[in-house]
Every structure is written in structure tokens, then in C-alpha cells.
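[Meeting: bench + compute handoff]

Bench side (C.D.) handed over the final construct sequence. Compute side (W.E.) agreed to return the predicted structure before the next meeting so the bench team could plan truncations. Sequence as handed over:
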Amino acid sequence: MTAGTAVPATDPLTLDDVEDRARALLAPEVYDFVAGGSGGEATLRANRAAFDRCHLVPRVLSGVDTADTTTTLLGVPASMPVAVAPMAFHAVVHPDGEPAVSRAAAAAGLPFTAATLAGCPLDELSVPGGALFFQLYWLRDRDRTAWLIDEAERLGARALMLTVDVPFMGRRLRDLRNGFAVPAHAAPVNLSDTQRGGGQSVGAHAASVIDPTLSWSDLEWVRRRTRLPLVLKGVLDPADARRAVDLGADGLVVSNHGGRQLDGAVPSILALPAIRDAIGDACEILLDSGVRSGTDVLRALALGAHGVLLGRPVLWGLAVDGETGVTAVLDLLRAELATSMALAGAPHVAAARRLGVRGASATRVREER
């Protein structure tokens, strides 16, 4: 699908349309597991509201009729500044699970981030022609942590993404009210036999496997342990960002975990400019939490990100039509981004990162540069 292409009225025209279709297909407790946040879901709502308060300043008379969305993320060529975010338990929404998503990402020319809590062996996610990132939780079982790092390296992963904002799971009230548990068919197979957690609540399973004492000294251990580019996911404070860079981080993901951890945390898009200012060009910055359109991707670029991670919309596409549904979501996002870039007068990603943004927030929103 390309910008401006006519499509049948029955095809989804936005990522929200895809979510609506997924909601109609999924059991209510499964939809809530994917869609929900923690606590009163204030951060979940604020993520979207914050994007809408960030107003782009388009450039005119630029002669742009088409936009080139290609870029690199952590040294990996990408058809647009987007990677698939790490997410657990794909098979709860569709039996084809993670392999379908990894194939769709490879076909779209985008990196796929395999999760520690994936429901299939990691070697099934290393797709010929694809680019694999690996997301790591700091496990109580340190030997298993080391094994996962070794597996990621063996399979040719291009980056190691350490999640740092989950000492334990946030209190997700929808799941508690629904009594949602990890189905046996979606349980994480890359943990030890005693840690896979089928039939447990998500919170109970996380508490049994994730070590809440992760600290800066552990980050130093990970940095020494792997030769892969090391990315910290879940950074919102500029001081933390500076310290991570000082300890050898090659990238950061500005993220509040999609509103699923600390309820009341700052929206990621509003935290981004201060982190960009704090570290300059010392490492690459990605953003997640609340991205729902190509215009959102453009906003993130203009505020200093090199790219974004796309989460829930990928699962909605998977729920609707398996691999084909994920492909449709990624195609739609690329078409939206190309259109938004052209309308903003940005012929390529570097120009998009020079666009101005206006907005009001308690933190700084980057002024036109």
C-alpha cells in the first residue's frame, strides 16, 4: 500500500480501525490483557493525549512530492524508522504467534524484537533476511540470563535490549478482575522448565522469574558479558540516560512500558526532549508507548528520536489476520508516515528530525530547530 492509494471501504484505514476489528474477534479478557494498563490507567491515557499536544511545524516550498522513509536503527537498515517492540505471549491473540510477526517484520524490512517471554524457541524467530533484536529481563536465574544472551549472539541478534523498568509487574486491574492467566499454549518456552508459568497470573509469573534487584552494577555485568550493542528500555529521567551512556549503553528506549508499569509516570513523548538534550548524539534514542499513526512516528523524530518501537497495533493486526494482518498494519503505518513527511516538507528521515514542534507540557517540548 502506498500513500494516496484507493482501498475498498471495507479495509482498515487507520491502526485504530485494526484495533476495533481485533476487539470484536478476541475474548474480552484477552483484549483487556493487551489493551490495558496499570492502576487507574492514567499513564495509558496520557500517552495518547500527549502525542496530540505535540504540534508539528511543516516547512513549505520544499518541492517534496514523495518522502524516503528508509533509515538505519542501531546500524540495521530499516524501511522506516520503526522496529517491532518486544511483547510477550503473542499466541494469546493468534495461534501463529511470534513467528508470524517476525516473518511479517522481515518482509517489511523492519527489525523484530524477540522477547524473553516469547512463546516459541528463539531460533524460530531468526528469519532469513530479517534483523533480530533481543529483549532481556534480568532473571532470578543468572545462568539462564547468561544463556539467553549467548543464544541471542548465536542467532545473530543485532542488539540486546535490557528492560529496566520492570522490577515486578505493575498492578494491572483489568487482568486481576478478569482472573487472566498465562495460557499453557502461550507460556514462555525460553525459560527453565520450572519458570514457564502456564496457568499463572501474569504478575505472579513475573514475580517468580524477574529479579527486582537489578542495579547499575548489574548493567556493568551485562555490558561486559556481551559484544552486542546494548540498549536500555524504560528510561524516562535524563540523569538515568546520562549514567547509562557513561556505562556503555549504545541506545536508549524512552518508554513507560505502554502505561503498564508505574501509573502516573510521564508520557514517553514528553520525556523525550529532555533526554535528547541530556545526551546529545552520544547514542541512539528510540521511543515507545502510544504510537498509533505515521504522524506519531514523525512527531517522535522531530522531538529527537531516531525511531520508534511499535507494540499493540502489531498484536491487533496479528489477531485480525495472522501474518497478513501484521503486514497490513506495517504497510499502513509506512504509508501514513510517507504522507505526513511529504506534507511536512521532509523528503527524508534526517529532514524529519529537523522539523519544529510546538506544544505545552510540564516538561519541555522541543522548539523549532
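W.E. noted at the follow-up: The radius of gyration is 19 Å. C.D. will use this when planning the next construct.
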